[in-house]
What we know:
The chain is mainly alpha-helical.
Amino acid sequence: MHNFLLSFILQASDIEAKGGLFDFNATLPLMALQFLALTLVLNILFYKPVSNILDEREEYIRNSLTTASTSLVKADELTHKYEYELAESRKSAQTIIRNAQQESQILVSKKIKEAQKDTESLLENAYKQLNTQKEQALKSLETQVDILSNQIKNKLLET
């Protein structure tokens, strides 16, 4: 077939051109056949592989976007879950702290009351001891005053 096309082209070139630019002779069907053959070759060799590659790339991008969106949804769910757990942990920590503060306040107030009772008892004991010492001192002073007054009286009477 190739030889036939070459011989046809050679015969067509031997015929002189009569019309000029729009001459409808044997070259027009040859050009149409050449265009169709080139289109077929390009379609087989270039357009189909390129379109396959583009289709594969589009599928890859679509799959990547799908997995990325599912990963994003999972990440959002995990974020909400962890934020909720964090809020619950903060609430429980605040209640634990509040309970510990109340317990420590109760313990401190008990210790303060015990310390006040101890100081009151110590003050009362010290007051009682001072009163007994005062009474003893007064008694000893009375006896000494009596002794001294008797001595003075005896001296006055002797003289």
